[in-house]
Amino acid sequence: MEGSQREAVLHSCHQRGANRLLDLCFSNGGIYIKLGQHVAMLDHLVPAEYVQTMRKHMLNRCPISSWEEVAGIVREDLGAPPEKLFASFSPAPLASASLAQVHEATGFDGRRLAVKVQHRGLRESSSADLATLAGLITIVKWLAPEFDYGWLIEEARKNVPKELDFQQEARNAERCRSNLAAGTSSVREQVVVPAIVHPLSSARVLTMEFMDGVMVTDLEGLARLRVPPAAVAERVSRTFNEMIFRHGDVHCDPHAANMLVRAAPGAPGGWQLVLLDHGLYRQLDDALRLEYAGLWQALIFADEAAIRRHASAMGAGASVPLFAGMLTQRPWDQVRRAHGAPERLRVEGSEAERELIRGFAVQYASEIAHLLRCMPRPLLLLLKTNDCLRAVDRALGTPVNTFVSTARECSAALSQERLRRRPGLASRLLGLRDRAMVESRLALVRVIVWVKGLRGMSEGSAAGDQPAVELPALT
Predict the structure, then answer these.
(1) In the chain, what percentage of residues exceed pLDDT 70?
(2) Angle formed at CA 439 by CA 438 and CA 441, multiple of 5 degrees
């Protein structure tokens, strides 16, 4: 069979599998849709047909609850039907996700509101769904003992009840809103979280201020707002790096449907990033937060000794190269410093490169399963967060921004901790030195990206494809 014929057969096979997975998720709803949404973020691990199918249908086009179900839940939780609680309440949802759907409403004070109403029966069915998944994972472990994903069920049993409690989501949203509005935040007034209307909220109904906007990866919508995709990618990366390394309080479901871009009120030409859906958070203790910052700083600056030290402290053991590859989506020989020689930091630029990474995932599947079982539990959700952010970054076409923001926030977090432990002029000067080193190296990276990007476009036009861009490591 010729290469083109084989590719066509393989594409058809993957598409059939993706369609069946979509049907399975929609038929079962709830937790299964959450799993399907995560598949949509894994274009470095699973075939493109699965990713594209899940993205098209899973992010904000999930099955819809009927008006009778929505009105019934509002009445049961808030004590009155929607028409008694709101001046207006649209029966048709604006969007529907795995756990709930959102309706536009108007308060009696004239405010536009967004009302998130949980799909009926999720609390009752989630235990059965988790039991089914636990049974499947037990069967997999029995057939192949090296693939023990029991930790996945443990995490789901811990996180699903939290996501189904909208009062918990309200608390998460308010903490996030407070953190990002603080005077020390680098994204103050640039990133907003809708305010919660507590009298009209409950465990299954969440009412918040309405915010117009376009999905963060809607390139046509961004063009209408005259917002450059590169600027959006930079702000998304800066926001989540601040959450991770500065606050240790992390929104762990940042897929494209949970982020909007809107024109900034009262600021002609300005724009804001809107963060939605605060159901899934992870709070990091200071020890893990700083260890993780040290690891990422070592990864970005290709410091092999520091990579091994920090990764081992987080349970990687003998699997440090694999752990580093999972975090960066690069082979170990592209991550580490080779005997002091300049290493190369690779920035994704082609489907062929992602196919290479998928191949590594298959080759080391059992080792990955073991590592996931051994690492600290908060890291599991951080890996999910990384997957979501990479997917957004790639959709916006500017994958270098993640490394830029990460370098700055890691350095700032570590400098702040050093100043806390050893207050004084010496620590402040060391902090200024670290910041200067980071900024000078990032400036060099920007120049190299620009030069090699121009060269790549020129060569790509001649060859009909755009090659990956390779950058010298920041050493």
Answers:
(1) 78
(2) 65
